[in-house]
Automatic annotation (TrEMBL):
Enzyme type, top EC level: hydrolase
Tagged with keyword Hydrolase: yes
Keywords: Hydrolase, Membrane, Protease, Transmembrane, Transmembrane helix
EC identifiers of the protein: 3.4.21.-
A Pfam family matched in the record: PDZ_2
Superkingdom of the organism of origin: Bacteria
UniProt-listed PROSITE patterns: PDZ
Stretches for region Disordered: 1-73
PANTHER family: PEPTIDASE S12, PROTEASE DO-LIKE 8, CHLOROPLASTIC
Protein name, per record: Putative serine protease PepD
BP-aspect Gene Ontology terms: proteolysis
Organism field: Actinoplanes campanulatus
Transmembrane regions listed in the UniProt entry: 79-106
Domain PDZ span(s) in chain numbering: 331-386
Amino acid sequence: MTDGWNWRRPPTPPAHGAPQSTTPGRSSGPEPDSPWWSGTTTDPWRDPYAPSAVVLPTPLAGGGAPEPVSDPDAPRRSWAPIIVICLVTALLAGGIGGTLGFVFAVRGGYAASGGTQLGASGGQIPENTQRAPESLAGVAERVMPSVVTVRVSGAIGSGFVVSTDGYVITNDHVVEGADESLSVSFHDGSTATAKLIGRDPESDVAVIKVAKSGLTPVSLGNSDDIAVGDPVLAFGSPLALVNTVTQGIVSALDRPIQAGEGGTTRYYAAIQTDAAVNQGNSGGPLVNAGGQVVGVNSVIRSVGGADTEAGNIGLAFAIPINQAKRVAEDIIDTGKARRTVIGAEVITGETVAGARLRGVESAGPAATAGLRAGDVITKLDGHPLEEGTDLIALVRKYAPGSTVAVEYRRGTKTASVSVTLAADTN
């Protein structure tokens, strides 16, 4: 058996009369046709001793390129099935993903609420929901523990703690008629008894003391530093709705207020605010954006026919804390508040673009400064006066011993003097 490379054809006997080849395995004459070989004399694979040659194919008639031959039985490739499969797969994947997402969301909301989920699901609730200290909510959180609801014989007012040992500032008209039933309640629902320390009807400031330890006093601000437009919060129990906070701005400063009907007439230069204040807010603190008390809510202006029918219309008035603090300290220290006076009597109800002096006390502050009866004071410490009650209210704002500038008109002449205010000796 051989692979054909070194194969030799056996010698073929020569025809009768023909010369015999001397080359082994090679025929010198024509070979018979073979069903296995063609071109036997030139096929190098048939006979390794035959010469090799490169034969170029003969061009087709007409010089054209040969027509490609394709197998008619071979299947043709089509992209349509592949595209259809991809589309169907994408649609199925999207549908299944959306369905699973919806199912998980609904089941999660249902499980969390115990029933049908309403509304859009929000983000994760932070563990610490405490507001920033400088925010209004942060201010309310700090001040609220110091605010109390004052209950007197069935009536309700407000107040705020000003010392760790339980002193509370409120309005005089809140504790008017108070007896042994005086009590207070705090924002956490706890209650305590309280006793009246003292009151000053003319300034509408009173002090009570709560029988409870561990109290947190408020921070007191400076009412002389506030300005119109400053944001403020009013705390208290309006209409018996305890722990109420309302927001507004300072609407005006040194608004002369005369309050009180059928009893003591109260005068003060008030802080006006548009924060909602109603019955029951009296005595509660008016607080600035820094959490400091700048006033004591006291009076509202209303279109109602009587005080009991009055309601908020955006006009409320507070006693400046500088005045309330001074009065409260007098009450705590001496049991009685000093009243600041200028030493003159004024005419009220007269429209003379100022406060006309009816009389001047001898050796009093006005007389010492050279003022006389008949003079019309037009400004006190730069504040314009419209009529007599304005002078009384503004004088009460200052502490005894304060020196203020006074502008006045005497006949057709105007002048100014400095007046050192004094405390009433009565």
